[in-house]
Design goal:
This protein is mostly helical. It has one domain: de novo design (two linked rop proteins), CATH 1.20.1440.20. Helix content is 75%, strand content 0%. The chain has helices spanning 2-57, 64-80, 85-106, 110-114, 116-151, 155-159. Helix 1 runs antiparallel to helix 2 and helix 1 (2-57) packs antiparallel against helix 5 (116-151).
Length: 187
């Protein structure tokens, strides 16, 4: 009879550990999926920027520094993806700042404000910026859930044993939180 009780206790413990492990795997997979959604939106943003730079380049002969800054910030953001979430977030925030500068300069060129190509690219970029913001929010919510899952008892007992590590949030700097806005309509 004692062996049966011991076996039942062991089976119960094994079932609990399996449940905890599977729950942590599920949370980790949701974090990975949320990060991949950010990557999709960032890739779209990165793909739009060369088109925008090319569209405004001919009009902005005296503004080459702004175009160079945007191009360099884009290159840094693309390469930062392999350096982890904090480095990527920092590079993306720098890219947002460079885009703000570009749009501020565009305001000084009436020909650009009338260009359908520039208007279309600006609208696509604004939409993408909004999608990036929503993706960041979703990612950060899943990271919070995951981090809570690995840090609360009894999960924390097993999380370290199974190699579950805390994940970083995808943080925007306070000034990078707004979507670049510009009025390109004819005045």
């Amino acid at each position: 009879m004692e062996i049966i009780v011991v076996l039942i206790v062991i089976v119960a413990i094994v079932v609990v550990v399996i449940g905890i492990y599977n729950g942590l795997i599920s949370r980790r997979n949701r974090v990975d999926e949320a990060l991949s959604q950010i990557q999709v939106q960032l890739k779209r943003r990165h793909d739009l920027i060369p088109n925008l730079v090319e569209a405004v380049k001919g009009y902005m002969q005296f503004e080459q520094k702004v175009l160079t800054d945007v191009t360099n910030a884009r290159a840094a953001a693309v390469s930062a993806g392999a350096q982890g979430v904090p480095a990527q977030a920092q590079a993306e925030n720098a890219l947002t700042g460079a885009l703000r500068s570009l749009f501020a300069v565009v305001e000084n060129y009436p020909e650009l404000k009338a260009s359908q190509n520039v208007l279309s690219l600006q609208e696509q970029l604004t939409t993408t910026e909004n999608q990036i913001s929503f993706s960041r929010q979703h990612y950060n919510a899943t990271v919070l859930d995951y981090n809570n899952g690995i840090q609360t008892f009894p999960n924390n007992v097993f999380a370290g044993m199974f190699g579950f590590m805390k994940r970083d949030f995808f943080e925007a700097e306070p000034e990078a939180g707004e979507v670049p806005k510009v009025n390109l309509s004819l005045s």
